[in-house]
Design brief:
- It comes from Nocardia tenerifensis.
- One of its GO terms (molecular function) is metallopeptidase activity.
- This is Aminopeptidase N.
- Pfam families: Peptidase_M1, Peptidase_M1_N.
- This protein has 11 helices and 23 strands.
- It is an alpha+beta fold.
- The chain has a domain of 163 residues: Orthogonal Bundle (Neutral Protease, domain 2), CATH 1.10.390.10.
- A hairpin with a 4-residue loop joins strand 2 and strand 3.
- Helix 3 crosses helix 4, helix 4 packs across helix 5 and helix 7 packs antiparallel against helix 10.
- The structure holds zinc ion.
- The site of zinc ion (ZN) has 7 residues, from helix 5.
Amino acid sequence: MNRFPLLRSATVRAVPLLAVAALAANAGTAAAATPTGIGDPNFPNIGSAAYDVSNYSIDLKFDPSSGRLSGTTTITAKAKQDLKAGTAIGFDFLLQTQSVLIENKPAKYTLGKDKLAVTVPVNLPPGTEFTTVVAYNDIPSRVQNAAGARNWVENAGGAIISNEPFSAEWWYPSNDHPTDKATYAISVLAPEDRDVLSNGVETSVTQNIPGWKRHNWLSKAPQMTYATFLAIGKYERTGQNSGTPARPNLNAYATDLDPTIRANAKASIERTPEIVDWLASTLTPYPYEATGGVVDARMGGFALETQTRPTYTDGFFRRGKNDSVVVHENAHQWFGDSVSVATWKDGWLNEGWASYLEYLWSEKNGTGTAAEIADYAYATSTRINWNVVLTDPGPADVLPAELYTRGALAIQALRSAINDDDVFFRLIREWLTKYQYSNAKIADFIDMANAVTGRSTNALFKTWLTDKGKPAYKPTDATFDNAKRAPRSTSPAPAKPKVWDDLYATVTQKQ
Ligand SMILES: [Zn+2]
């Protein structure tokens, strides 16, 4: 994710009192008990440890005139526990549900706080693959989750759902945690004058009903719930097979963008295949089957690393072209989407690295080396709250600005302490290879850094990620022996790198 400082307000439909009152009453009679979550330390009720999803087949109709979303989601999952008939399992979901079938048998269900609790109607021993079909019909823009968020954003043109850490519950039932990745088949029927965009590759567009078209999207690589998006509206599409090797590349620009912003966005997004090729040469081969980007003013003040096709708010392109944000979101295809957080305490693994890849892009382009940018950030760091603990920012904001700023400085400190780019980039590649399509914790990275460097990086990471307060030395003065090293931060602040304003005009202004 990357936040833009100017937050925009979303168009939200009014919530009739009737709809709120009806919410709790809708049930195929009550499920047995409230299911427990997957055990994330920041969000204990989210997700489920009872099953592991392998595929979501989402089959929906969206009517922009009413804001109504209806259809079914078919979930293929494997039981991870002994789910005897009568056991309650949970799917993270907010929408009015019509029916639930498990293995073709009607299941009792209750729609509670952020959770569709379903009573398993048949015995499912551990390891059993089972199919759940949930039918639903609701107006997602009227729905807020337990935390008060309304992440389904709509205007007269259509709707977009793309958010972190939570977006799935506004449009399909899921195991909404990064540790349960799955493949996706997303099929959406919309008026023929609206486009429908999602992740992966569009396999077909069909027309069986006059005035309506069905768009079918397929994501073949494992994908997280929060990296899955849906956009319905009027877009200009661009792109063709590009990159090395050639991949389907599809970009889309909302037709209501300001013309200058559209031009600036194109000057950035159209470079996606080139930027992905550079990332692949710096990191490891690109992990996915397609590339692209979507620019839409309805994205509420941020950009998100939606898998294969990042989504960007228009604000990133107000000042001019902005290839840094394209680097950031595509770096997340490796750091975030392929190698994903094991818990919502591990956000540094995503944001620290995506931010540092922006520094490396500047280094390649001669607009300031990563070392120069990091030292300048350290010297002029009034915007960084040095008391945010990057290894545990807390549930109120799992992605604070400090993960991006201090988080990138921590990586420069590591690179400076290693003082050997062959070793530094070998560590990156081993990390991305070992945990590809999987999940990891910050502690796993520190373990690997210790193994690859043959040194203890523990003290360095304690200083830069965990200890409160500004480290006593600038990133490029870092060594592995912090205790023995005299602070040398008295050197004058370096000159402002040329890329600086491009980088930090697009990061949140929060202090
Ligand atoms: Zn990010």
